[in-house]
Amino acid sequence: MSAPSALMRIPEEFIPLAVISLGALVLVIITIIHGFGIDRIITRYKRKAEKLRQTSWHPKLAVFVFAGTILLLLFLHMVEIMLWAYVLYAGGLIANYHEAAYFSANAYTTLGMGPMALPHVWHEMTPIIAISGLFTFAWTTSELFNIVGYQRDLVSELSAKRQQRIASKKG
């Protein structure tokens, strides 16, 4: 970027307010995206599970519905990391989008690894990114417990139906 970004032109005495304001705004946006995404993913899982129940597929095929759900949860988190990366890159805090994505992923997952850091006066943004990751990972974990329970029920029901079909063919 040849011209300084809007964030880099903020007078230093106003940066703490800018960090809190921008960080809070992005955190709320990410939480809304996460809520919408989680809702859609769970709805999709339940719809696919019901389809398996109605068609009486082999219980082992339920793993594909579960795996698809896990992948969608991963993609949801990746979108959220990329949103943070875009904010950091577009704001001129990190000059390279690839580095912004790497930094965001490290902060969001609370790994804290990596050789780069935000400009000194913007360091407070890093914990806000981490907090957004903590919020969304906790939410995902709680929903994942529910999904695992649904998955167990689905496999049990499909197994019972399969046993009934096998028994009726023998009888």
Short description:
The chain has 171 residues and is an all-alpha fold. It has 4 helices and no strands.
Helix-strand blueprint:
Blueprint: H1 15-55, H2 62-90, H3 97-108, H4 125-170
Helix pairs in contact: 1-2, 1-4, 2-3, 2-4, 3-4
Entry keywords:
171 residues, mainly alpha, rod-shaped
In words, what does this structure look like?
The protein is mainly α and 171 residues long. It has one domain (24-170). 75% of the residues lie in helices and 0% in strands. The termini are far apart. The model has no long low-confidence stretch (mean pLDDT 92).
Distance between the termini: 76 Å
Q: What's the helix count?
A: 4
Low-confidence stretches: none
Major sheet, described briefly?
none
Strand element count:
0
Rg to the nearest angstrom? 22 Å
Task: Give the topology string: H per helix, E per strand.
Answer: HHHH
Shape: rod-shaped
- Amount of helix: over 70%
Tally of distinct domains? 1
Rounded mean pLDDT score: 92
Strand content: under 5%
- Given helix and strand content, the structural type is mainly alpha
